[in-house]
Amino acid sequence: MAKLRVGVIGIGEIGTTKHLTQLVRHADEVEVTALCDIIPERCEKANEQFGLNAKIYTDYKEICEDENVDVIHVCTPNPLHCEMTLKAFECGKHVYCEKPLACTWADAQKMLEAYKAAGKKMTSGTQWRYNTAPMAMKKMYENGELGDVFYIRSSQLRPRRLPAYGVYTSKELNGGGVLMDGGPHSIDLPMWLTNNFDVATVRGVTFDKMKDYPEGNDLGPWDPDNFDVEDTAMAMITMKNGAMFYVETAWVSNMQQEAPGIIASISGTKAGVDMVGPGFETAVRVTKMVDGKLTTETIIPEEKYDMWAYDMDKWVEAILEDKDPATLPEEGAIVTRVIEAIYESQATGKTIVFD
User: 260 pLDDT exceeds 90?
Assistant: First the structure.
């Protein structure tokens, strides 16, 4: 069997720690044949670090046109996602586009149209679904253990974890702030948990209150004078079946969660379940009636998942075996639409109604 030949655009933090690290695990099925970055030294370093012999490009159009590339991974700043993905499909490639799929609903629609016209595979990077705790919660939902789920709280309140190493604090270069970083995961998670992406309305608020408090940030200091995006956002998302999802996400907050990462709390008619420690999204806490008494039990699932590995395994499998990827592009597009609605709701003070 011929190997999938992969080209990666954007050899920064995500391109290396997530994409290249996982792609080289599939050495029997995948060969990274090309790398692209406006700083070619990053590509040279990646070739050495991962034992590659990939061709180096500085122009994304050229890597897309390379006949020795079957699959393009777009790991660049968000405003570039659409144009690079469209070019890749024009050249007949499969595309893994990092989250958010696009910065606007209009661009997301263009990308969906292009992928359908190309007849290729497409996915987006909402791999946080695939940690041990959310996978266990989804099984409980699908098995009917929770009953009718009518409310989910999805929370990612980082105490001091703004990614100051990139362009995240620039609206022009990043497309927005925390809603473009942790936001896609927090928005996607409750919809994925309940197999429900049918949004009715969105009411959202954003804040930029913490930009002048860079002290103690885990990922380095930032410049408050070059910070024109939101650091915190909340939204109430109502679904067409009547369920309501409350989403909150922040880079910098003086609040603590019971466990790191994204925390989901589900309320159903038969039981409720949420994520707790120890560790990173490894345990669930189930609350339900047993013999007429309300009981709470913390469970550490026996089946373990690595979100990075699961996501990439399913992507490679989707192309080689003509299956759906773990994250469908249509799901990524809906997440983009919700983000856009949160911004619109903040600007207008209105609830945004979906068609």
Answer: no
